[in-house]
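Quick one: structure tokens for this chain, please?
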Amino acid sequence: MKETQGRVLIVEDDASLRRSLRATLGILGFEVGEAGNGEEGLASLRAGHYDAVLLDINMPGLGGIETCVRMRRIFTRLPILMLTVRGNEDDKVKALDAGADDYITKPFQIRELAARLRTAIRRYHAPESPEELPITVGDLTLDPNQRTAQKAGAEIHLTPLEFDTLKVLMSHAGRPVSHARLHSALGLAGDFSNRGHLRVLIGQLRKKLGDTSANPTYIVTDGYVGYRFRESPACGG
């Protein structure tokens, strides 16, 4: 019997899209449940076990954002991926601030969607590590206890704020971190809508990592949403 890739709940008001996703993801090895709106989605999560949720942001009744907020209150670690509309950056920011782990824009490639789901489910089932343990992604290692950072074994000298920024990004490797979430995590003063401070901070951090914004090895600018630390950076960039 083929091993399942995980159980995914699709919460989407478009019945034809739900059926299409269910059939395609089923072929790829996922077990799929369906819900036609936010209320049904919440009820389905309470009634059965799922490894991830694929949640449409635009639904009548209880909308995707409010559904995400309610799901996150009850299921604190469950991966929630939101389907957003291409080009609508506000929706992407709202999704992340509501507690979504990631988003994927319509129209999307099914292979990309399946890969995002597999990554989210794998992370969900990985044993939780205490925050004080070193974080390693690719050739970078961050030690929160010693407050040291190393690239390929060589120490990188970071300011306290640069270190904290890298810690937030590496802790969420593979997932987007919104400007608002990063601003809050770092305790920066002022309105987060003024992103000049973050841009400068990320620019300095990239420089110390030997990274570039044009061809990033580690830190990717995620549209107008925020930043994403590559889950498997190409070492030596």
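The chain is about 40% helix and 20% strand.
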